[in-house]
Amino acid sequence: MLHLLCIGPQHFETLKHNISKDPYYKAGLERVFDIVGDNEGPQETGGDVYSLKPEFYDDYNPYHYHYNHQEQLASEFSVKKIHQSRNEENCCPPPVPVPLDPALHGLLGLMNCDITMHLIHQVFLRTSNPFSCTFSEGQLKAALYLTGLALVEEEACHRNKSRPPFEFSVKAQNRYQLLSVLDSLQANVRVDVHRPLLMWAIRKFRSVHSAAQAYN
Length: 216
What we know:
The protein is mainly α. The chain has helices at 2-7, 12-19, 29-36, 69-85, 114-128, 137-159, 169-176, 178-184, 195-215, and strands at residues 10-11, 37-42, 48-52. The chain starts with a helix and ends with a helix.
């Protein structure tokens, strides 16, 4: 529901039709609509139209697994317009991940393992190398997003001790100099499309890294 409305305001029947395709569809959709959406009332085309409540835009994930390519592009464009109207970052940083069930805590290790950090590091190095033939904007965006996702998870752990411990920033900088590499990309023309996300990631990295060092 949230990610459907991130694409833009939609008619009730359209939302109901799209959500009912989900195998976990249940009754009581009207209550869900009222929680995350604002009813803008009947429109000229007929039927009530819902828009996403402002406080839920921070939960937007451009890599939402139900999106096709066109929906991803449309939702990002829509959410960036909302951010601009609020004088916020002109990008879509990752939301704070929901706490995992204890049986799934091991999944956190995928985000701060050496393989993930090495792959992210290689993407950043290829971006910084003007002669690299394997650079792609899609890989850069994904690497920035994964870095940001790990950082917001670590930040959430610092703030909420009930979450399982998770360390990323210190290891990423000490072993792979990720923050240093990110800093070096600021003047690189290859990152122009994703520069707002890069700048957000650098600020988040510095903040979380400083907190982690103080905590340790």
